[in-house]
Task: inverse folding
């Protein structure tokens, strides 16, 4: 029994090795059915068309790709306009002046009267500002929707129609503002958008300005076909391409997006990698609350020794320059992966047709018996065991009396008598 365990272990190891080194091949059954054969070839054709037309040609599945280039944007606005009270140049109607990817151009302003830091009644539109006595006004209290810090006094309102809490603020807080439009010449402002991109994986860089001479940008204007590399746009052109009315947008303000797309096939010459421009409005046009685009800023000055200011509520067109893109170049690894996927997907037709035969046709039993032919397991092979001890050698046969002379040997053997 002790010797049986090593033999059993050896047999188990041999069986495992035999199972690992064996190969099973699927049985091929030819089914002569016109409809099924047509469906099978049609599925194969669809798979081949998909990988050939869409994956390889359109999606360029043979290329290594890089998404999102490194990008820099520099903008510059030029132009002069006027309102009923003054002439406005680029230093006054553009904010911020640094020329980044986001900037706004003023098209209408509401100018409040001169204000000074002093005490005055709180505005009528502020909640909880009305009062009947000083007890209703808490000293040094502030309201997030108010204009300043309350003094604790209840004073008559400026119009004499009631009382409100007195505040220390830039007064008057409810002065009537003067509205002025800057849109008369605003549509003719020119906007230069300078963009440079870099794909670090491929070491490829390019810009949207290709000038043959130094004064090229002084005389050109953007055109999709004839001046693609002259990125100078009129403000009215940006609004028009976004599908908006300039007069309406200048009145309420809004946000216009300039989208620059770089889709570069680096297997082609560098001249084939060109920017593509698109324009659209980014803020919701029909919003009922907080419609348009506006902000406030102030200009300060001294008048008779008193520090004063003019508060301006500005409406304008904000321009957001957005850059995105991708680059692709031939690489062996994605090509092999795509080809392997395509060849594997061709077998989809066999799987679908097998499923139809096994589940949807009236000969599924016959097909199943031919497709899955299971042979009975072979009986176990008996391995003869070696003897435990070697047999003893043959001995000579002697007749009694046991004398040396009377010994005889089997026939065919030689012996010598002593």
Result:
């Amino acid at each position: 029994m002790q010797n049986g365990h090593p033999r059993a272990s050896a047999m188990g190891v041999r069986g495992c090795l035999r199972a690992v080194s064996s190969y099973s091949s699927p049985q091929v059954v030819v089914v002569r059915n016109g409809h099924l054969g047509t469906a099978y070839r049609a599925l194969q054709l669809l798979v081949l068309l998909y990988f050939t037309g869409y994956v390889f040609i359109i999606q360029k599945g043979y290329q290594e790709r890089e998404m999102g280039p490194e990008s820099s944007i520099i903008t510059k606005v030029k132009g002069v306009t006027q309102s009923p009270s003054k002439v406005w140049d680029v230093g006054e109607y553009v904010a911020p002046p640094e020329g980044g990817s986001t900037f706004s151009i003023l098209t209408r302003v509401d100018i409040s009267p001169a204000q000074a830091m002093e005490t005055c009644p709180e505005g009528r539109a502020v909640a909880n500002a009305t009062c009947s006595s000083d007890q209703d006004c808490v000293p040094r209290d502030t309201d997030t929707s108010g204009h300043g810090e309350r003094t604790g006094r209840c004073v008559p309102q400026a119009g004499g129609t009631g009382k409100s809490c007195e505040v220390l603020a830039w007064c008057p807080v409810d002065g009537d503002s003067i509205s002025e439009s800057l849109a008369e010449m605003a549509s003719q402002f020119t906007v230069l958008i300078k963009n440079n991109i870099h794909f670090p994986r491929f070491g490829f860089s390019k810009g949207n300005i290709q000038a043959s001479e130094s004064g090229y940008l002084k005389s050109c204007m953007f055109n999709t076909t004839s001046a693609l590399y002259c990125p100078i746009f009129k403000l009215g052109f940006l609004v028009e391409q976004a599908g908006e009315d300039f007069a309406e947008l200048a009145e309420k303000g809004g946000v216009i997006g300039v989208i620059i797309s770089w889709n570069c096939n680096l297997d082609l010459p560098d001249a084939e990698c060109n920017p593509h421009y698109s324009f659209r409005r980014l803020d919701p046009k029909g919003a009922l609350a907080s419609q348009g685009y506006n902000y406030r800023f102030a200009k300060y000055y001294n008048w008779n020794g008193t520090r004063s200011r003019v508060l301006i509520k500005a409406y304008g067109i904000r321009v957001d320059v957005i850059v995105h893109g991708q680059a692709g170049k031939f690489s062996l690894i994605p090509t092999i992966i795509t080809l392997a996927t395509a060849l594997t997907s061709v077998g989809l037709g066999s799987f679908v047709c097998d499923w139809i035969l096994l589940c949807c046709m009236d000969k599924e039993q016959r097909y199943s018996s031919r497709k899955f032919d299971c042979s009975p397991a072979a009986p176990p092979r008996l391995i003869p065991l070696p003897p435990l001890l070697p047999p003893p050698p043959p001995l000579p046969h002697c007749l009694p009396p046991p004398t040396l002379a009377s010994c005889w040997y089997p026939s065919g053997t030689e012996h010598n008598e002593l």
Q: What stands out?
A: The CA atoms of residues 11 and 383 lie 10 Å apart. Confidence is low (pLDDT under 50) at residues 403-418. The chain is about 25% helix and 30% strand. The first helix runs from residue 4 to 20.
